[in-house]
Amino acid sequence: MKKVLVIGGGGREHAIVDALSRSNQVGKIYCAPGNAGISAQAECVAIKDTDVEGLLNFAMQNDIDLTVVGPEAALSVGVVDRFRSEGLKIFGHTQAATRIESSKEFAKVIMEKYGIPTASYRSFSDYGEALEYVKGRPFPAVLKYDGLAAGKGVVIAADEEEADRALKDMLVGESFGKGKVVVEDYLEGPEFSFMCFVDGHRVYPMPLSQDHKRAFDGDNGPNTGGMGAYTGLPFISDEEMDSALKNVLQKTADAMVEEGHPLSGVLYGGLMKTARGIKVIEFNSRFGDPETEVVLPLLDSDIYDIFEAVAEGRQAAPLKWSSDVTMGVVMASKGYPGSYEKGFGITVPSDATVYHMGTAMRDGKLVTAGGRVLMCVARAKNIQEAKESAYKLVGAISCDNLFFRSDIAHWAL
Ligand code: AMP
Ligand code: GLY
Q1: Strands 228-231 and 209-211, bridge-based pairing
Q2: Ligand 2: residue whose CA is nearest its atom 5
Q3: C-alpha span between 67 and 74 (Å, rounded)
Q4: Three-state DSSP class for 161?
Q5: What radius of gyration, in Å, describes the C-alpha atoms of the chain?
Q6: Which position among 73, 112, 155, 251 has the lowest Cβ density within 10 Å, counted as fewest Cβ atoms?
Q7: Residue 226 has what DSSP assignment?
Q8: pTM to 2 decimals?
Q9: DSSP letters along 100-142, please?
Q10: Which atom from ligand 2 is nearest to the alpha carbon of 282?
Q11: Is 142's C-beta closer than 6 angstroms to any atom of ligand 1?
Q12: Is 84 within 8 Å of 110 (Cβ atoms)?
């Protein structure tokens, strides 16, 4: 039986651990650092996701057969390169390939060079030049910090004043560090997430999903890491999915091989269906969170097979997916994505699919320990039924300090 180490400690990693626990080849799962929910299915080890040497030593000492990387932070510090240099098997992209997410400019250059549809752009490192350029263009202005910014690197500025403030923050202030800003055209249309397992030229699509980035109902309030997700998008036809697979995901995989940085993990296309076709809003180099929590429960194949095939660079058997749909509601700490308190007690029904995003055990009790805390996931034959079950589950959770959106999947209903 195989021993697997999963790196990360959020809802995404809980869903990965859950999928691995359904594999009949996997005997033991470790998760670093994991969380309170994950500890029911995996042995959590207190190693930070970016502590490459700590992770490597752990994997060597414990004869880990395969390591699976969740967060981009771990990829971008080169955990994959380091594991491979020691001959260890690991699922995830190299540091160089991770730039498809970690550098907005790198991603834009690739898309332009290979004709992958996206908003046109210019990049700046000088505040004055950036401001001049933005002033001469229509608003809203889309400003993207060129580096990992934990989801806070994109500002859609409604007017000059807001753009000025954002550019100052990104290019002059201390909060981001010195970098560049990509200024791009503002696009409109429904957004969706298209994740694929990718190994060089080989691309294995997952079902489409849709995230809900704003904090409050009606897509209002500040941007968050994602407040809920579902699968079974009625507004993307099979033809559109095939075309996005061919013109975006496959082309990007091929481009990265051509550039000498083949992908070997998950490629996440954050796409938008505009009046002029499907365009790329962003790429991520890893599973989406909260998308993974609704997508992986639908995988009928053994997830260990695909992880291992990608890690070894060989062809995998085609993946089988359930035709059910899923829907999940995130429960977050009041105040999130701003400041919030932690340590509130939570009770969760034991037989439900609740992925833990930010929880901990304190004095033997489950408590809140993050901004996004839990995700309640339900599956059904159609989205209406899945929605009813997911919200029933939300209602069965008690905690004094959580809020959630009540309109997840509104685009589909
Ligand atoms: P990102 O971090 O690149 O996904 O951007 C965060 C959010 O900003 C996206 O989910 C979109 O809602 C929005 N956004 C990013 N780029 C654009 C664009 N070019 N036009 C309109 N909205 C955008
Ligand atoms: N749900 C968006 C992301 O994972 O980046």
Answers
A1: antiparallel
A2: 288
A3: 12
A4: helix
A5: 21
A6: 112
A7: -
A8: 0.95
A9: HHH-HHHHHHHHHHHT--B--EEEES-HHHHHHHHHTSPSSEE
A10: 5
A11: yes
A12: no
| Angle at CA of residue 373, ends 265 and 280, nearest 5° | 40
The minimum-distance atom of ligand 1 relative to the CA of 282 is: 3
DSSP summary character for residue 39: G
How many residues are recorded in the chain? Answer: 413
Residue 226 CA to ligand 2 center (angstroms) comes to: 7
The pLDDT of residue 146 is 82
Q: Provide the sign of the torsion angle of the four alpha carbons 127, 132, 135, 139, taken in this order.
A: negative
Please give the single-letter amino acid code of residue 36: A
If you search the block for the tokens 């400019």, which residue do you land on? 105
State the helix-helix crossing angle for 251-258 and 104-114, rounded to 10 degrees. 100
Nearest alpha carbon to residue 141 among 119, 163, 169: 163
For the Cβ of 214 lying below 6 angstroms from any atom of ligand 1, the answer is no
Identity of the residue numbered 313: G
Instruction: Please state, rounded to an integer, the average pLDDT across all residues of the chain.
Output: 95
- Is 184 close to ligand 1, i.e. is its CB under 6 Å away? yes
Ligand 2: distance of its center to the CA of 363 in Å? 32
**In 283-329, which residue ranges form alpha helices assigned H by DSSP?**
291-295, 303-312
State mean pLDDT over 316-327: 97
CA distance 279 to 68: 29
**Bridge partners for 280 per DSSP:** 118, 271
- Select from 50, 71, 2 the least CA-distant residue to 30: 2
**Parallel/antiparallel/unpaired status of strands 181-184 and 141-145:** antiparallel
For residues 274 and 90, what is the distance between their CA atoms, to the nearest angstrom? 37
Structure tokens at 313: 């660079």
More confident residue, 172 or 321: 321
